Amino acid sequence: xxxxxxxxxxxxxxxxxxxxxxxxxxxxxxxxxxxxxxxxxxxxxxxxxxxxxxxxxxxxxxxxxxxxxxxxxxxxxxxxxxxxxxxxxxxxxxxxxxxxxxxxxxxxxxxxxxxxxxxxxxxxxxxxxxxxxxxxxxxxxxxxxxxxxxxxxxxxxxxxxxxxxxxxxxxxxxxxxxxxxxxxxxxxxxxxxxxx
Length: 196
Fold this sequence. Notes:
Helix content is 53%, strand content 4%. It is mainly alpha-helical and 196 residues long.
């Protein structure tokens, strides 16, 4: 497997969890600090848009605001969010599967960054937030060990910046022999044993 496969797997996890989440659970709290399930789903959706624009090197609209909702979800009934997310997730995966897309520089929210770093960050982002939604609704998320190692590497690469920026909480200690994905959750400031 390569990074393109890992991105696809991570997007598939997120889409699967969103599809399995009843809309009547959208007001529930999540382990993602101060985010409800609705806000976490919207955050994943927004991530699809930003990741796709990073892959294609298209500029993103500076008027977009997370609190307004992912652009493709604005005005869409919540009952249709899962299918819209599936469509956008598939488009994002296709964009990151294009030849050479992981090479050179791209952008994330207007800041230039190596494309490979963006891809790694977003692969981790989709998997961790998929876990947030799954945990918030009382489900387990089965992450293959190889993907878990990739997510852990991605989280560790941005954890100091994430904590400084306030998007990661303090690291949660986990056992040395814990699976890689569990370690990734701890490094991202999640308690792997969190329950609603």
